[in-house]
Amino acid sequence: MTGTAERLQLTGMRLREQRAEMRAGRADRRTERLKHRVDVLQNELDREREAREELVDLVRHEGLDGSSSRRGGTIAMLAVGGVAYLLGAKAGRARYEQIASWMRGARERGERAMAEQTSSSTS
User: Which residues of 88-97 are buried (b: 16+ CB within 10 A; e: fewer)?
Assistant: First the structure.
């Protein structure tokens, strides 16, 4: 019986070793997949950094960072704002007059209706 017990122990040890090797193999494969993912992400990050630096250089080169003539930009903004104000004021006044005349008409109709109702109720 001791021979059988020893064989069982050896078989159990072999099975444990095989499981450990299988786990180690799975861990190695996962590690390799993760390393590959890290490499892919690192390459994407490098490309994005390069693109960002190109954009920053372009903006600096073109003077779009606000360091170029601020006076010209301010004058243009004031001119556009002035024209928009004038056009808006004219359109706003016309719309105001339209609404005001509609309200006057509604008030007059209401006054007439009230007058007719009071005159009919007193009769």
Answer: eeeeeeeeee
Which amino acid, residue 61? H
- The mean pLDDT value of the chain amounts to 81
Q: What is the DSSP-derived secondary structure letter of residue 123?
A: -
**What are the tens digits of pLDDT across the range 49-89?**
888 888 878 777 765 545 555 566 777 787 787 777 766 76
Q: In whole angstroms, how far apart are CA 33 and each of 25, 39, 112?
A: 12, 10, 86
The position carrying tokens 């004219």 is 90
Per-residue DSSP letters for 61-91?
Answer: HHTTTTTS-HHHHHHHHHHHHHHHHHHHHHH
| Residue burial 63-79, b: 16+ Cβ < 10 Å; e: rest | eeeeeeeeeeeeeeeee
Q: CA 112 to CA 71: how far, in whole Å?
A: 60
Sign, CA torsion 16/22/25/26: negative
DSSP conformational letter for 1: -
